[in-house]
Structure to design on (351 residues):
């Protein structure tokens, strides 16, 4: 156990929903993530989280989130423990408040992926260390940071970040967590956001109101339509998501009929956007279903893999932003005093 970070800090800020944050907060996180990316490319990532431990609870599979969080903790001088279903008593065998209290006493942060946003909120209400929402059935805030970090790096020539037009094409119903996350980021940052979805798979009135309420403060705008042509004609970035989600394969035929071919991100669709317009995808993608291989692997129209790599850089920024201020520089005189006292106890050990 190290004593460098205050685990029992009274006031704790969690990362549950990007709309909980101001534009200023998010721009600071981008700036930090950009700097740490530069440091990485320079082979010089500073050990901002030396001695810190992150518990990572995964109720669902993950490639990008799992690897980026663990690598980011290691790079910053800390450590991450991956806790899969069946490895800890969570939910069924132990009350959430008890798990939250125990993990808070041993770790400096808790990352959780579970398809139950309310459970993440409950965990956060009992945790005395920061909780990172690593994807829920409602949103995906760590993805949102990486996505907009990537857009900032690929702005159309002569255009400012504040002026970009982000267009989601696909499922924005309650299953469409990327459409919601992108909306929350646009709302927090005050950006122009358009959603093109079939009416049956469109953003709920409640969520539209939620996003528009935040946009009243931020200055962004939200348009929801099923007119793809109109939505994409001046898009700077196109954001799709899978059409059928993991665990919902029984809906595949119905969903394919609703989305294909009109909502597929292919070269023909991109030809109806400005030349500079770029496609993202959070991955994993179903190649040649919601997005074609030709687009995904395109040298100038795709920023899909830059986006995936940025999950790592964004995670470093997020972890450092939320955990570093809890660091306490050890008082070396006290460390020596404790060491001497411990050694005098250790002398009593008999083999
Ligand atoms: N985009 C994303 O969250 O990827 P993983 O499911 O692999 O973590």
């Amino acid at each position: 156990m190290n004593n460098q970070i205050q685990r029992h800090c009274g006031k704790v800020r969690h990362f549950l929903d990007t709309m909980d944050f101001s534009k200023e907060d998010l721009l600071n996180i981008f700036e930090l993530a950009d700097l740490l990316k530069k440091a990485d490319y320079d082979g010089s990532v500073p050990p901002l989280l030396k001695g810190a431990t992150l518990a990572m609870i995964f109720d669902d599979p993950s490639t990008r989130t799992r690897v980026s969080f663990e690598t980011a903790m290691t790079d910053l001088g800390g450590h991450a423990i991956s806790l899969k279903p069946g490895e800890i008593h969570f939910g069924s065998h132990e009350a959430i408040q008890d798990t939250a209290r125990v993990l808070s006493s041993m770790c400096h942060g808790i990352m959780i992926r579970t398809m139950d946003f309310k459970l993440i909120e409950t965990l956060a209400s009992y945790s005395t260390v920061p909780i990172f929402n690593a994807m829920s059935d409602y949103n995906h805030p760590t993805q949102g940071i990486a996505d907009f970090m990537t857009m900032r790096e690929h702005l159309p020539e002569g255009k400012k970040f504040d002026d970009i037009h982000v267009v989601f094409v696909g499922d924005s119903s309650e299953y469409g967590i990327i459409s919601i996350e992108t909306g929350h980021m646009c709302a927090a940052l005050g950006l122009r956001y358009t959603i093109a979805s079939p009416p049956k798979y469109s953003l709920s009135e409640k969520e539209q109101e939620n996003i528009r309420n935040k946009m009243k403060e931020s200055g962004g705008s939200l348009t929801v339509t099923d007119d793809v042509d109109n939505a994409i004609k001046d898009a700077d970035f196109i954001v799709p998501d899978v059409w059928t989600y993991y665990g919902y394969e029984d809906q595949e035929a119905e969903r394919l009929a609703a989305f294909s071919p009109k909502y597929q991100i292919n070269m023909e669709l991109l030809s109806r956007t400005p030349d500079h317009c770029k496609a993202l995808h959070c991955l994993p993608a179903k190649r040649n279903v919601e997005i074609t291989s030709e687009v995904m692997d395109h040298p100038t129209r795709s920023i899909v893999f830059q986006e995936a790599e940025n999950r790592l850089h964004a995670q470093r920024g997020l972890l450092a932003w939320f955990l570093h201020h809890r660091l306490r520089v050890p008082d070396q005189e006290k460390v020596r005093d404790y060491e001497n006292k411990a050694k005098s106890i250790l002398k009593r050990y008999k083999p």
The radius of gyration is 22 Å. DSSP finds 13 helices and nine strands in the chain.
